[in-house]
Amino acid sequence: MTKLIGLTGGIATGKSLVSDYLQQQGIPIIDADLVTHKVEQKGTEGLKALVRVFGRQILLPDGSLDRRGLGQIVFNSPNDLKALVRTIDPFIRDEIFKQLETYKDDELTVLDAPTLFENGYAHLVDEVIVVYSDPVTQLHRLMKRNKLSIVEANTRIKNQWPMQTKCDLADTIIYNSGTVSTTLTQVDKWLANEMK
């Protein structure tokens, strides 16, 4: 049976950099964001469930999900965010287990999940890696990447668990406030230990 590694971090801390690098090394990746997009596609049971909770206002004219519109609703209301997670989570879990089955013979598989702790996926994995960057770097990256104001970026960061809490629960912390090569050297070291 494959060893399942949970890879997480804060929004814009560099988790995707680590995930992409591990994939380049031949490690299978289950990307929770891609899984979420898949189960929320037009015509899926996941999207129908979301419409039942939030109404047709979350749909674009073509019937697909208005992610930006839904984001504005849930990131400004803790209750709506909980309702979103509660509604879509069963569909995400089913798809994760389906994908995991295809990798059962691999030595390692990575579950790349930004909300690994928040959404209760940590107990599914054998080991947790947290990708950390200092708060100023994280804020600047998020504003630049998502074209957000400082207020919008801070709101999104505050909707996740504090980075210190995640680091306290991690088996391994990858520090990503410096250069890419410094970050990837840490990943190489971790991978060498895992593959012994």
Report what the structure shows.
This protein is of the alpha/beta class. It has one domain: Rossmann fold (3-Layer(aba) Sandwich). It is 53% helix and 13% strand. It has 9 helices and 5 strands. It has a 5-stranded parallel sheet with strand order 2-3-1-4-5, with helices on both faces. Helix 1 packs across helix 9, helix 3 packs antiparallel against helix 5 and helix 6 packs across helix 7. The radius of gyration is 17 Å and the shape is globular. GO terms for molecular function: ATP binding; dephospho-CoA kinase activity. It is found in: Cytoplasm. Catalyzes the phosphorylation of the 3'-hydroxyl group of dephosphocoenzyme A to form coenzyme A. This is Dephospho-CoA kinase.
Instruction: Return residue spans where pLDDT drops below 50 for at least 5 consecutive residues.
Output: none
Radius of gyration: 17 Å
Q: What's the CATH first level? A: Alpha Beta
Per CATH, what is the topology?
Rossmann fold
Cα-to-Cα separation, first versus last residue: 17 Å
Total DSSP E strands: 5
Q: Helix-strand pattern, N to C?
A: EHEHHHHEEHHHEH
Estimate the helix proportion, in percent.
40-55%
